[in-house]
Amino acid sequence: MRLELGRIRVRDVVWSRRTFLENGILHVNRDELVDRAGAKDTRIASIDAEIARPGEHVRIIPIKDAIEPRVKVEGRGGMFPGLISGVQTVGQGRTHVLEGCSVLTVGQIVGFQEGMIDMSGPGAAFSTFSRLLNVCLIIEAREGLSRHEHEEAVRMAGLRAAVYLGEAGRRISPDELVSYEPGRSSGAHDGRGDLPRIAYLYMLLSQGLLHDTFLYGRDMKTVLPTLICATEVMDGAIVSGNCVSACDKNTTYHHQNNPIIAELFKRDGKDLTFAGTVVTNANVTLKDKERSADYAVKLLEMLNVDGVIISKEGFGNPDADAMMLCARLEEEGIATTLVTDEFAGADGQSQSLADTTPRADALVSVGNANEIVMLPRPEIVIGNERIIERMAGGQPGSLSEHGIRAELQVILGATNELGFERLSAREE
Amino acid sequence: MAKEIERAGIPAVHVCTIVPISKTVGANRIVPAIAIPHPLGDPTRTPDKEKALRRKLVEKALEALQTGIDGQTVFGD
Questions:
Q1: Tens of pLDDT along A378-395?
Q2: What residues contact B66, with CB distance under 8 A and at least 6 apart?
């Protein structure tokens, strides 16, 4: 399962008569992009497209998903298997990445559970997406559509747009070519080398109520924890269908660029052996949580690991899943480190997590989502700013002549629990 | 909430789906509920069966309220 990622650095995105990539400039035929994204889906009433660049005085709100344009150049399968392409296993061959840009799906689905991005000003410091060239699709659904249908229509439009733009990179010679091959280091072959065997346990939100994640198109709440080759994730095997608090959900872009996977690959064979990746879910009944925790722990034991890095997604009840996983792994003598954000109140004084266990003794905090941020008015708003008053982290009065005053929670990816951003906390 | 009610001298039962969270938070009497989106019901059942389920949960909670306890107790099936 060797995958080469060819990174093509995109320096600008411009509207053009046809769609192509040249000298780092992505030229996009706007009408064709809109047509391809919509794909005559009768659930969609209209799609508009805008470009938002880093440094511009632009606010984008409300955003559901972010997707990185990629294209499968060699090897089995296609991008976003199970949703866009067939269900063939991906993760090998060669994939080209249009680095530096993303597709954002904009428009209200449930309002209180979407997020925002500022392209400049203080808010821009909190989100990777503020540093990207964002192709925004403003999608209006047909009236009377159920929220689940609406979410699916928007999700698919975003994926199709990313695939359409990714195609422009098919024949471009990448600026950088990096090869990823799980099990490359000797420790993985002889069962137990000198280096510690470290696995990655990848928690995916799967709660129904539009808090869903898809693995090869399969709803994760119907899946028992399973093994995945880390390179599959880079080809879009995991897709976000999440309308949930913006700060700590994993968008599809986050999955495509999982920094924990990148770091484990980088250190594989040097100071650790990257022993494998297990994806698990966070469901809504206690029985499901216990079943998944036990099953995931069993898979990790079968991988014969010394330690596990766990990333959480979301907050509240998934804290219980995370604690079960930490406790059960530690009971088996497997060391754990959990990456989590905190909901510790505006002053940081409240209990950060809904559930705790003394066994979870190594945590990396990626910030307090309740922290209050002041975001001055931008010149241009893509979408609808008034939604902030109903968004998780906002409240009536959040929007004033001065701008937005809300919890960090409203910013897309601000406390992402894959460790995407720079916020952290230390114990005192 | 359960703790504050008990602090005022009134016994309380926490009917709660994710029992470990209830334990962490410190509720004394815990009755496990159905699921996070529908703690006190189950829309996949027929109305009759759901009503029976709901009655069982409420009766369990009332029973828990009248039961003397020494410490944190989960009133499971």
A1: 999 999 999 999 999 999
A2: none
